[in-house]
């Protein structure tokens, strides 16, 4: 569904609410040419108490932290961004939605150094369903191990959510889709499993959970962190600094993705090897996750910012 088909008409930009079509930048903006921007993807869920933003504080902190390696200073306090986001949701009368804050170097000069370029910032919000498809939440998705490797943290900061780095994700994902798969898996430079193009990975073996650690070059996903907490609270053993080889994907009892967009999505096939449809551990964690984010329980209420 295109944006023009959605009931959205407003974007917050540089401290002001503007019409959707008027949220524009100069074609010579530094961020457009060099990928010097940082962003977040955040979910807001429809609950009995009204729209509730999931883990706003953690997402806001990561946004500011992501800008640090690039000297990208956001001239707005997190509290201002939070209130702007809530007002954006109210103005558009959204219930559940996806929220995209983005900060980037704007237009001044076009050298590689952004020295005199201003920091621009915008927040958009729009309705968005299951990222990998509603059926995928139950049936799972087919994934292909990509020929493209994840860049190493010695090359570019892997824990900064940087706009330009998602070219790597695009290449991996489009390669997988061109071969009939729904999504990709990316290996790191050592050949171990890193993550999906926009998701973290969990492997289940003998009732225990394994997920690649930060040393494997992954993004420290907020949904990943949430699922680790939920799983441990349910009594599962979680190995959150695991090294997972490519071969282990083919012998796993269960595999699933986590992410703001993907939420908790099972993986039913890796390359030409069938893992199977949603397993019992994935199903329990997925069910618990949706009970929490849709506020069918009072647990983890501090994870939510109510609009």
Structural write-up:
This protein has two domains: 124 residues, D-amino Acid Aminotransferase, Chain A, domain 1 (2-Layer Sandwich); 158 residues, D-amino Acid Aminotransferase, Chain A, domain 2, CATH 3.20.10.10. The chain contains eight helices and 17 strands. The strands form two sheets. Strands 8, 9, 10, 11, 12, 13, 14, 15 and 16 form a nine-stranded mixed β-sheet that branches. Strands 1, 2, 3, 4, 5, 6, 7 and 17 form an eight-stranded antiparallel β-sheet that branches. It is an alpha+beta fold and 307 residues long. One of its GO terms (molecular function) is L-valine-2-oxoglutarate transaminase activity.
Please summarize what this structure is.
The protein has 307 residues and is an alpha+beta fold.
| The CATH topology of the largest domain | D-amino Acid Aminotransferase, Chain A, domain 2
Total of DSSP H or I helical runs spanning 4+ residues: 8
> How many beta strands in the DSSP annotation?
17
Measured as a percent range, the helix fraction is: 25-40%
Q: At the fourth CATH level, what is the homologous superfamily of the largest domain?
A: D-amino Acid Aminotransferase, subunit A, domain 2
Poorly predicted sequence stretches spanning 5 or more consecutive residues: none
What is the overall shape? globular
Please report the first level of CATH classification, the CATH class of the largest domain.
Alpha Beta
Structural class: alpha+beta
Strand content: 25-35%
* Overall pLDDT metric: 95
Round the Cα radius of gyration to an integer and report it: 19 Å
Order of helices and strands: EEHEEEHHEEHEHEEEEHEHEEEHE
Please give the largest β-sheet.
9 strands, mixed
* CATH-defined architecture of the largest domain: Alpha-Beta Barrel
Protein name: Branched-chain-amino-acid aminotransferase
Organism: Halalkalicoccus paucihalophilus
EC number: 2.6.1.42
Function: Acts on leucine, isoleucine and valine.
């Amino acid at each position: 569904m295109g944006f023009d088909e959605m009931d959205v008409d407003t974007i917050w930009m540089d401290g002001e609410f503007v019409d959707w079509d008027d949220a524009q930048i100069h074609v010579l903006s530094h961020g457009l040419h060099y990928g010097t921007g940082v962003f977040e993807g955040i979910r807001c869920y429809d609950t009995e108490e009204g729209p509730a933003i999931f883990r706003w504080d953690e997402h806001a902190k990561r946004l500011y932290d992501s800008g640090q390696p690039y000297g990208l200073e956001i001239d707005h306090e997190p509290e201002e961004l939070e209130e702007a986001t809530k007002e954006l949701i109210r103005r558009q009368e959204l219930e559940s939605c996806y929220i995209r804050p983005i900060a980037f170097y704007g237009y001044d000069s076009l050298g590689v150094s952004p020295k005199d370029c201003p920091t621009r910032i915008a927040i958009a919000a729009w309705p968005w369903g299951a990222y990998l498809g509603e059926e995928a939440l139950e049936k799972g998705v087919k994934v292909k191990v990509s020929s493209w490797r994840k860049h190493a943290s010695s090359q570019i900061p892997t824990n900064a959510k940087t706009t330009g780095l998602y070219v790597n994700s695009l290449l991996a994902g489009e390669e997988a889709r061109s071969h009939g798969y729904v999504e990709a898996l990316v290996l790191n430079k050592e050949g171990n499993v890193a993550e999906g193009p926009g998701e973290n990975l969990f492997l289940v073996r003998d009732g225990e959970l394994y997920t690649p650690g930060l040393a494997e070059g992954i993004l420290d996903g907020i949904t990943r962190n949430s699922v680790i907490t939920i799983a441990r609270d349910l009594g599962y053993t979680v190995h959150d600094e695991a090294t997972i080889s490519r071969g282990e994907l083919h012998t796993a009892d269960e595999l699933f993705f986590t992410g703001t967009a993907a939420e908790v999505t099972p993986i039913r096939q890796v390359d030409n090897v069938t893992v199977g449809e949603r397993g019992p551990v994935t199903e329990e964690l997925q069910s618990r996750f949706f009970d929490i984010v849709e506020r069918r329980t009072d647990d983890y209420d501090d994870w939510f910012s109510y609009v």
